[in-house]
Amino acid sequence: MKRSTITATTGTALLLVLTACGGGPSEPAAPPATSADGTGSPTTAAPSPTATATATATAGGTAEPAEETDEPGEDVVYSTDAQNDPEWPSGGGDLLPVAVRAGAHEGFERVVLDFEGTGTPGWRVEYVDVAIEDPRGTEIDIDGDATLQVVATGVRIPEEDELDRVLPSGEVDVEETDAVEEVYVTGIFEGQNQAFIGLDSERPFRVFTLTDPSRLVVDIQTED
């Protein structure tokens, strides 16, 4: 597992990327996808007392532990197939991504994207052969032998005085996991927030959202 950390994009660089997107979020440019196993609407579980959003952006640093153990509804199952929420693709929203957390639990490892704002993010998660950053089209070297792409929708462009709270682009080091070797966040573009999860192998995963605060949860199965 990598222990080194790559410096995150500065607030100024992030502002330049956001400015290039236009004045606000628009319909995501991703192609529509058919639902796969595990893409049904989850039953949102009540958050645990430890499930609070981290106010400080953590890209370029070490991920805080994902300690909550909330379980989704029975219709949310582990699969290696591409998964998306029932309303994918969706546009618009009031969410700001503020942190990434990762943790190991019995039978799975969990990666959590924390958001500030109202509502819950739309999402699509799938294995990709190569990690390609939107919108630049550049290839990113992700640790591990398998890569999950995570696209969250419903995010907005931050104001200048919010840049210190928004999760910037860059590598997020993980220390609490074995299967999860790296998380990399590319930033906000056209109402989407893209991230990649580097894994030791292609494992079944499940995806669901939680509220109070808003969170997107990706669980990677480590035991049958």
UniProtKB/TrEMBL annotation:
Domain AMIN-like: 98-221
Keywords: Signal
Signal keyword on record: yes
Chain intervals with Low complexity compositional bias: 38-64
Signal peptide coordinates: 1-29
Acidic residues: bias regions: 65-74
Region: Disordered, residue numbers: 20-91
Pfam families membership: AMIN-like
Stored PROSITE patterns: PROKAR_LIPOPROTEIN
Name of the protein in its database record: AMIN-like domain-containing protein
Protein's organism: Georgenia muralis
